[in-house]
Amino acid sequence: MKKLFLNICFLYTVASHAQILEGSAVSGEIGVSIGAAHYFGDLNPNGNINRPKTAFGAFFRKQFGKYIGLKVSGHFAQLGYSDVYSKNEVQKSRNLSFNTNMWELALSGDFHLYQFFPGQMGYEFTPYITLGVGLFTYDPYTYLRGQKYFLRPLHTEGQTYISGFQPYNPMAMCLPVGIGFKYNIRGNTNIFMELGYRFTTTDYLDDVSRAYAGSAAFPTLANGDPSPAFLLQDRSYELGTAIGIKGRQRGISKQYDQYAFAELGISISLFSYKCPTAKY
């Protein structure tokens, strides 16, 4: 009899119709999202939001109590910008551009401002805030005469050519912060919107940070033609007079690059249920 009781309890808890039971608690959440990502940095120092690119995300959240959760999330995004979008004539004459695919893995604390319990009237909605730490990879590239070039191996600011100046790491840390709104639409199914901002530990997301190394720092090809590194470290010649004099400012090294997400998503709340102790 006891075994039969426990089996019935187990089957009732994991029933496929996902009915929310009295006495159950939200134990976690899984979800996916789609949205837009935007870059902010040396090529976009004024924080313009005019070149969003595609972003995708997925997460698992473990709930601790009614208001606090711990979230593991992953994102893929495309980022990019160009000096041609600038209204500053000096920046526009620099004529640099980049794109990159970015992969991010983050661990964040989520804090619900209201109690959230899917299926219970009055508890279907909550705003929340999120704060965490993460790692991301990036590999900036651009195009020259229709051909794609990854910029890091070209050492466009003289990395390896200048003593003590090493290539930047294609992996960096980020500090995710954000706000979101979550609404239960039916059963254990929710929709959400989240705005997230990433402070990073790199100034090379766009391959621009310090000063021009000067044309003499870059080798020529075997036939004497300029190398791709030479042609891509200073592209102002495409608009007229080259400005890339050795030591002249190319970027703002004291300000790290940043990026942001705007996402819409759907999630499924997970429940735990403790069966009552059998009495005989």
Overview features:
8-stranded antiparallel β-barrel, 280 residues, mainly beta, single chain, 44% strand, two-stranded antiparallel ribbon, disordered N terminus
Task: Give your account of this protein's structure.
Strand 8 and strand 9 form a beta hairpin. With 280 residues, this protein is mostly beta strands. The strands form 2 sheets. The chain has an 8-stranded antiparallel barrel. A two-stranded antiparallel sheet has the order 6-7.
Secondary structure elements and pairings:
Elements: H1 2-13, E1 25-40, E2 53-64, E3 68-82, H2 89-94, E4 97-112, E5 125-137, E6 141-144, E7 147-150, E8 171-186, E9 189-200, H3 228-233, E10 258-272
Antiparallel strand pairs: 1-2, 1-10, 2-3, 3-4, 4-5, 5-8, 6-7, 8-9, 9-10
Outline of the structure:
With 280 residues, the protein is mainly β. The chain is built from three helices and ten strands, in the order H-E-E-E-H-E-E-E-E-E-E-H-E.
